[in-house]
Amino acid sequence: MLYFDDIEVGYQSEVGTYTLTESEVIEFASTWDPQPFHIDKDAASASIFGGLTASSLHLFAICTRLFFDHEDRIQILAMLGKEAIRIPNPARPGDVLTYSTECIRKKPSSSRPDRGVITLKDTLTNQDGQPVLTQEVALLVARQNDLSE
Predict the structure, then answer these.
(1) Pick from 38, 43, 82, 108: CA 20 to 30 A from residue 49's CA?
(2) Angle between helices 56-69 and 22-32 (to 10 degrees)
(3) Quick one: residue 129, left, alpha or beta (phi over 0 = left, psi -120 to 50 = alpha)?
(4) Does pLDDT of 147 surpass 60?
């Protein structure tokens, strides 16, 4: 378990990998983001993407799951926000996605000594090293119980 004081600016970690399948891309988007380029192979082929792409919501869900399963269990109290979200390349069925993160800021709470805020810069890349999602996420993180030591 990692607490606020365990995470320094510059902390980096490979959170995990995930392989997208065609059926999953279509099923997820059919429920949550039914754009034709996410759910219909013919329409997707005729789109600006030239084939099926995963929904950005799907990519966020993948990141959330991988972060939850990550061995560096950061003691998150709450997500405070996401900024600088970019989706520079499409994620496609068959892609092997790798999620990595880096702490770019941290600030202890001035009013609540049991917590602090860290900002992580996340990158989700495909098997060719191309980013398919980047974001900065502010997290409220617990400090260890005994701060007097």
Answers:
(1) 82
(2) 110
(3) left
(4) no
Q: Beta-carbon neighbour count of residue 127 at 10 Å?
A: 12
- What's the 3-state SS for the chain? CECHHHCCCCCEEEEEEEECCHHHHHHHHHHHCCCHHHHCHHHHHHCCCCCCCCCHHHHHHHHHHHHHHCCCCECEEEEEEEEEEECCCCCCCCCEEEEEEEEEEEEECCCCCCEEEEEEEEEEECCCCCEEEEEEEEEEEECCCCCCC
Look at residues 87, 19, 72, 24 and name the one whose alpha carbon lies nearest to residue 52.
Answer: 24
Q: What is the spatial distance between Cα 103 and Cα 54, in angstroms, rounded to a whole number? A: 27
99 within 8 A of 66, measured Cβ to Cβ = yes
Whether residue 149 has pLDDT greater than 80: no
Q: Are 91 and 44 in contact (CB under 8 A)?
A: no
pLDDT tens profile 71-114? 989 999 999 999 999 999 999 999 999 999 999 999 999 999 99
Q: What is the pLDDT of residues 39-72, one digit of tens each?
A: 999 999 999 999 999 999 999 999 999 999 999 8
- What tokens does 68 get? 């939850």
